[in-house]
Amino acid sequence: MTTTDVGGRAAPPAAGPGAGQLRRGRGRLGAGRAPGGRGITPYLFLAPYLLLFGLFVLAPSVYVIWISLHDWDFLLPGKPFVGLQNYLNLFRSGSVTSEPYWQAMLATGKFVLYSVPLLVVIPLAVAVMLNQQFPGRNFFRAAYFAPYVLGVAVVGILWRFLLDPNIGVVNHYLGKIGIGDIPWTTQTPWVWAALVGPTLWWTLGFNAVIYLAGLQDIPRELYEAAKVDGANRWQQFRNVTLPGLRSVLVFVITITILASANLFGQSYLITEGRPGRETRSAIMYIGEVGLREFRMGDAAAMSFLLTLILMLISVANFLLFRQRKEG
Amino acid sequence: MSKDRSANQGPLSRRQFLGLGAGAGASMLLAACGGGTSAPPGAGGGGGGGGQFGEGTEYTGPNVSLAFWNGFTGGDGPFMRKLVDQFNGEHNNIKVSMTVQQWEDFYPKVPTAVSSGNGPDIAIMHIDQLATNAARRVIIPVDEVATVLGLQQGDFAPAVWSAGVWQEKRYGLPLDIHPLLFYYNQAEMRKAGISEPPKDRASFEAALKEMKSSGVENPFWVTSTWPAHLMWWSLAYQFGGQPYNEDGSQAQFNSDAGVEALTWQVNNIQQGYSPKNVANDAQAVAFRQGKNALTWDGIWMMNEWAKIKGLEWAAAPLPQIGSQPAVWASSHNFVVTSQAQKDPNKLQAAKVFIAWISEHSIDWAKAGQIAARASVRDSAEFQQLEVQNIAAQQLDYVKFPPAVPGIGELTAPTFELAVNEAVLGKKSPKQALDDATQKANELLAANKKKYGG
């Protein structure tokens, strides 16, 4: 169950690394006890969550599959069963749904591609910085985290006006230093900057906090030992910090990919999916089809396919990091 | 922590499941509830003979409460709330509670809420939503209300009165009409030496030229988003086109008139009368700041302009750029939902409420609306509302979409998209409208299949 990691340190349990790391001490105490013989007690403790999970996650998920097999409008008396037609339509070029769906998926993919590396690397740098001893450290920790408490509506509308091509503050000041109007919210490729930038500003604090917890979990002795061996700062980071953060890193990458793949609010508010449909995300399109055009069968098929793809990516992500560990 | 995150962005696909699942979950419950009733609500509404709405214009039954939903989240909200309060004060046995939410949330939510019984009894809907909600049995016919209250076509603008009818039954009672208007900055007009607001293509284009030379860098901002597609809708009719054919079975956005309309819009950018890349709301902000001297926007914007100190503005009918006058408009309509049908008292009270608000619609007109009823428009009080009166000059040629289920949802993925693509230079006007027409016809065919002929 537990594998030996750098310096003989017991790696935190694979499941729920974030919480696991924070409560490592308690976890160790628990691990000392003999397993088995507890009867149904653990299941009773799990039951309330399981109930909610079953009711609000599992059951609707199964129901989505059922809906996706029909031409479904919950208010109309007839909900003809169409088999896999809704799925086939997604793969048949020229159908009403296939072209816009894959365009939306592509937009989502682009956003993931542009945002995830930044959201993984920059918060790590911020966390390493905030882990140093310096005056005002708590202030900066709070400052980096602060935007995260804002809702997406606030962030979206704020940045929509800041980045407006003609009346925005950003272009106003760029103009003062001789840079002409940049169509941040209306033209590619600028729209991607207008989506990724605010997202970075908004959520980097969250990832940074997780990294920070992970960093504080790396034993000081390892750094001291590395110093004795003559490692410089970079070598310490490369050989002590990064391996120590491995499980945190997997967690951060996974949730960041999922969060970015769920892009909705930013493109809904900042670019409105424009220009054309270039920044309309998958979630945005699924919402339009299902909740505005009331074609819930189509929407359910799309969302199930999206979920499937995200599950595959998450699994691939875990496998990738595990293989490296073995190799 | 994870709770915070899910409130913002969603940590896992679970969030997405929840979002989409919530609707699905609700509909599962609905499906369970609906299983018992064989006749869908609303289907038998018209055939119920005289009397489900009761006789007369008074309500004398036991105390009843009415849930009244609308999307008046802007400056118009307080006007309606005041009317509702006044109504409640004058009617001891009827209590109307008004719920306001964004229109974008309103339309997806009402059908679900109504069929679960937690929705509105009466609501306001736009004219292009009536057929959709009638076909989905969210709202019920109100011919009887019109008869009992003595509401007749003669008292309404013909276009708005006939647009509330679907499959020979009336589903909406018009409260107001809100067209686009032409707003102009008087100070900039004076500077350019223009005394009269331009009325036709020649004088409008001359005004643009003169303003540009008198120091307005961009006198006419053509936005890439709302309400650019409403400008196009108006222009397409002006050039002799008709975006949908008469019965709403075919889209014809890419007619010569449609292409000419969009080309004219785009040309204003190419000639420098509009900046490029005008994004959401920027043209309205620029008008407030005096940078955008001429703008076409909804009549409801009048109260926004009035708030700006030092902004000298006035309104005029939309200039006639094409060969005939035409202007986009929509209309707020009273609807009665199938939920109210379960309680005859609610239906009777709803009738009284609708009649009362309709008679007091002069106070609603002050929110920046043209009263739908001619008798209100002819009143001395309405005559004093300057901008509303100017807007009312356009009533003879307002253009609504045909009453076809699903038509309201067609706008965004079709011609609104095309106007955006053309204004941003992504596609030529012709190409953009060709694509939109094809898409619209696919969606129309799908809708026809879904809702029946």
General description of the model:
The complex is a heterodimer of chains A (327) and B (453). By secondary structure, chain A is mostly helical. Chain A has a single domain, classed as MetI-like fold (Orthogonal Bundle), CATH 1.10.3720.10. The relative contact order of chain A is 0.13. With 453 residues, chain B is α+β, with helices and mostly antiparallel strands. Chain B folds into two domains: 192 residues, D-Maltodextrin-Binding Protein, domain 2 (3-Layer(aba) Sandwich), CATH 3.40.190; 191 residues, Periplasmic binding protein-like II (D-Maltodextrin-Binding Protein, domain 2, 3-Layer(aba) Sandwich), CATH 3.40.190.10. Chain B is built from 21 helices and 14 strands. In chain B, strands 1, 2, 3, 4, 7 and 12 form a six-stranded mixed sheet that branches. In chain B, strands 8, 9, 10, 11, 13 and 14 form a six-stranded mixed sheet that branches. In chain B, helix 10 crosses helix 20. The radius of gyration of chain B is 23 Å and the shape is globular. The relative contact order of chain B is 0.16. The N terminus of chain B is likely disordered.
Question: Biggest interface in this structure?
Answer: A-B, 63 and 64 residues
What is the residue-mean pLDDT of chain A, rounded to a whole number?
A: 86
Q: Helical amount among residues of chain B, as a percent range?
A: 40-55%
What is the CATH homology-level superfamily of the largest domain in chain B? Periplasmic binding protein-like II
User: What global shape of chain B is seen?
Assistant: globular
Distance between the termini of chain A: 18 Å
Strand content of chain B: 5-15%
Q: How many structural domains can be distinguished in the coordinates of chain A?
A: 1
Note the overall shape of chain A.
globular
Secondary structure tally: strands of chain A: 0
Assembly state = heterodimer
Largest sheet of chain A: none
The CATH topology of the largest domain in chain B is D-Maltodextrin-Binding Protein, domain 2
Overall number of domains of chain B: 2
